Amino acid sequence: MGVAKVSGVRVRKAWMGLLLGLLSLWPVLGAAQQPLLVRHNLTAQQNDRTLAYEEEVLRLVLDKTVARHGPYKLVRVAGISQKRAFAELEIGGLDLVSSMTSVAREAATQPVRYCIYKGLLGVRVGMGSAEAVARLEGLRSRDELSRVPLGAVFDWPDLQVQKEAGLAVVSLSDFASGLKRLRLGSFELLPLGIVEAPPIAANAGLSLIESWVLAYPSAYYFFVRRGNDALARRLSDGFEIALHDGSFERLFERRIGPQVKAANLATRRVFRLRNPILPEATPTTRRELWHPFALKMFEGAPP
């Protein structure tokens, strides 16, 4: 009887020990099942339920790494300026932002150096009223261009690039109010990337220059907080896989290719500008990362 009681006590203690051990592992096991949370500032297209191209790229590279790095969950934080987005990234309020790069941005945050637009966001077409566009189609010299009032949002790296090139650029507080000022005649043209300008102009009821473009070397990346090496590594791994299997190129051609083709770059005059804020670490020698037109910008060859 005494032996049976002792045995029962030992069994209960053994089960309690096993249960406590499992409970102690629960946070670890639970954490392993939690998806990676990625708070970002990418937005969906206006009046369209499909994902924006940038978010499609983000999902593509994260999907490519699920087997190795686990599940993920995207949380969109919309309606904030680039300046605020980078501030939130630095303090941990966001995990990822997208932007054209600059020396200052790469000093403050960690770039993932795979250009989402293959270097084409630095190829800019002027957007303005039908009257202004018709009058400015015939520009042929940098001197003429330098007298045209342009607009750029205050926290766009393009503002500094265009100002340092000697162009007359009005600083805008935000894009929406900039469109209103453009319609009111505060400036004449708002240069936008050829990959983004057509739908914006159509929605705003504005026209686009068809005979010339501004062009300067550029790169548009995902950025993460300094020290967030795990997310940076996962994004880099995903890009490498997507480049190798061709899925990034297919996405680019499906979503961006039509705008590039419609821009008829081969028929346009090109006003080339230097980009003094492009970091030296930009991977310009990896030809597979760039569109052929962008490569000419990097190499100094005639476009």
Structure description:
This protein is α/β, with parallel strands linked by helices and 303 residues long. The protein has 2 domains: 33-119 and 218-258 and 277-290, Periplasmic binding protein-like II (D-Maltodextrin-Binding Protein, domain 2, 3-Layer(aba) Sandwich); 121-215, 3-Layer(aba) Sandwich (D-Maltodextrin-Binding Protein, domain 2). Helices cover 47% and strands 17% of the residues. The protein has 14 helices and 12 strands. The chain has helices at residues 2-33, 53-63, 66-69, 82-91, 103-108, 130-136, 142-146, 157-164, 175-184, 197-204, 229-245, 247-255, 257-263, 292-299; strands at 36-40, 72-76, 97-100, 110-112, 123-128, 150-153, 169-172, 190-193, 207-208, 212-215, 220-224, 269-272. The strands form 4 sheets. Strands 5, 8, 9, 10 and 12 form a 5-stranded mixed beta sheet that branches. A 3-stranded antiparallel beta sheet has the order 3-11-4, sandwiched between helices. It has a two-stranded parallel ribbon with strand order 1-2. Helix 2 (53-63) crosses helix 11 (229-245) and helix 2 (53-63) packs antiparallel against helix 12 (247-255). The longest helix is centred in the N-terminal third of the chain and has 32 residues, at 2-33. The protein is globular, with a radius of gyration of 25 Å. The model is unreliable at 19-31 and 45-50 (pLDDT under 50).
